[in-house]
Amino acid sequence: MLENKVAVVTGSSRGIGKAIAERYATRGAHVVVNYTSHKAAAEAIVRSVEDRKGQAIAVQADVSKVDEVHCLFETALQHFGRIDIVVVNAGLELTGLPVTDVTEAQFDRLFNTNTKGAFFTMQAAARHVADGGRIIYIGSSTTGYPRAGYAIHGGSKMAPLYLVQVLAQEVGPRGITVNAILPTATAGAGLHTHVTEDAPIRKFMAEFSPMGRMGTPEDVANVAEFFASDLASFVSGQHLLVTGGGLA
Predict the structure, then answer these.
(1) What is 222-239 written as a DSSP string?
(2) Among residues 39, 79, 108, 110, which is most buried (max CB within 10 A)?
(3) pLDDT at residue 197 above 70?
(4) What is the CA 106 to chain-centroid distance, rounded?
């Protein structure tokens, strides 16, 4: 379905980004695995893809630094010659913190990655993605369900949602779609990377979610595969909740 497409997936050495990168590779795409500090994990994904006769490279870049974003895209173009899909996934999480307790350093750290990083990654995508390509932003369901303690986490992910809708209009004439995926709490990703089977969050989500479970990286990869495929060629500017029917 994605045969010979070139996909850049930011923050893809683990969690949701890893699941998406691996899914794209199984569908025939060439994958650029981006990481900030988890080099060994990124290189392990590359080896796994190559073992299945696919093509992948690992590229270090901190998306909070615009120069490094540019280098990421330049490296992808130099290696593969084109870019068809960009998944803007890299992000940080910080929850359980009242507005009154947020420090300037915490604010800057989250907004530099989640807001500034997402903006300039999508800007680079808009400049370099081939006509008919795909830009996919991975946000958070918390943006649609305000909760105490989530101010800078959800707040830092609000601006990119507006950008998705604007960018969909700006690049639409080139046949490029721009969409957002908003996952719920995801076992094996972000704050819940190492969540155990008996963790309280699992019990909470089982009671909170109509489907009685937490989300998984594969749930998000399913939607990312759809948005990257020809099936979604006329779907753009959308924000899709992946919550199993729950609010967040």
Answers:
(1) HHHHHHHSGGGTT--S-E
(2) 110
(3) no
(4) 21
